[in-house]
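Team,

Forwarding the record for the chain on the shared tracking sheet. I've put the sequence and predicted structure together so nobody has to dig through attachments.
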Amino acid sequence: MNNYKISITLLNDGSVDPLVRALNVIRRGKVNVKSIIMSSNQNHVNVEVYVEGIEDEVNWVCNKLNKLYDIVNVSYTTSISIPKVQSLQVGERNG
């Protein structure tokens, strides 16, 4: 199994629904999610999902994501390493 980065750009409609739809597709794929990094602006939500799996399954996930109407762009690349991300507990602030 290899590591991959799936890059997703979603429309930002002010709700979490597009993100939840995308994550449900990823959940149904036969990949192991290792890390998720998300950022947003007024128009788009950018998500990087680092997964472990075989390329056919990653390709399947991306094809399914591409069919969602919220998706602006989706692609994947082989990832050399999975970034370590600092998590925040509810109520905590970074900085």
